[in-house]
Amino acid sequence: MAIKTVQATINGQTYTLTLNSTSGKYEATVTAPSKSSYNQSGHYYGVTVKATDVAGNITTKDAADATLGKSLRLQVKEKVAPIIAITAPTVGTYLTNNKPTITWKVTDADSGVNPATIGITIDSGTKITGDSIAKTAITEGYQCTYTPTTALSDGSHTIKLDASDYDGNAAATSSMSFKVDTVPPELTLSSPTDKLVTNQSACTVKGTTNDATSSPVTVTVKLNSGAAEAVTVGSDGRFSKALTLAEGTNTIIVVAKDGAGKTTTVTRTVTLNTVAPTIKSVTITPNPVDCGKTFVISVEVTN
């Protein structure tokens, strides 16, 4: 009996096949579904083939058929890789915490992110995967968090992130660098000395500062209740600031701040006394005094 039609139904679409006179088979060129088959039941699109003869007899085969079922399972793979987006820390940032929490997102709009492939590498260490990375499901992927178990050394560090989707597409490796700085800057004052008493109102604050990890360091100088004023720090770390002291006790506060925001403070107290002492009285006893004998001179002085 002659065949009237042969049809194939894939993902809800029905296609009529045409007899190829050379091969003797019914054929059709079909555009695959636009989405991966991974999220379909069984990870494939089931294909149903229906053959009808001119007498109206129909034979149907589908993916559940014991003989032809496997050949009626269409696997469709996407070619778009997942996207990795680092949330924290931001590139080039300075961190005062040597066990920083690293957060990022991995998303894939089709077959989905395979959580087993999510990994992080810190510097040249071993890639970390699995349960060490906390993964929270979000739309089309995962929000990921990792905190190093061993403190990172002060200085520069690089993290690299990896992930793939269920169709095996690997995301472009995402990397970024940051610095850890747990040590405040060095700050040394060469003048004035603490608790200095002087009759000169002109006073120069001099010192040096440095930070091995996050230079340059900024310096401010504050005199008494005045505002903290920025001071220029040379490439060698030296700085100076001219001040005018007030009569009496003066408090000078010098603060050095590094790129990570850590500070070191040095305080100096300087007393300005421009009032000369007053000699109120002088007494010589005895007076007159015999030659070669001793006498006592008593002077009353106030200041």
TrEMBL record:
Gene3D superfamilies: Immunoglobulins. This is Bacterial Ig-like domain-containing protein. Residues 97-182 form the Bacterial Ig-like domain. Pfam families: Big_13, Glucodextran_B. It comes from the Bacteria.
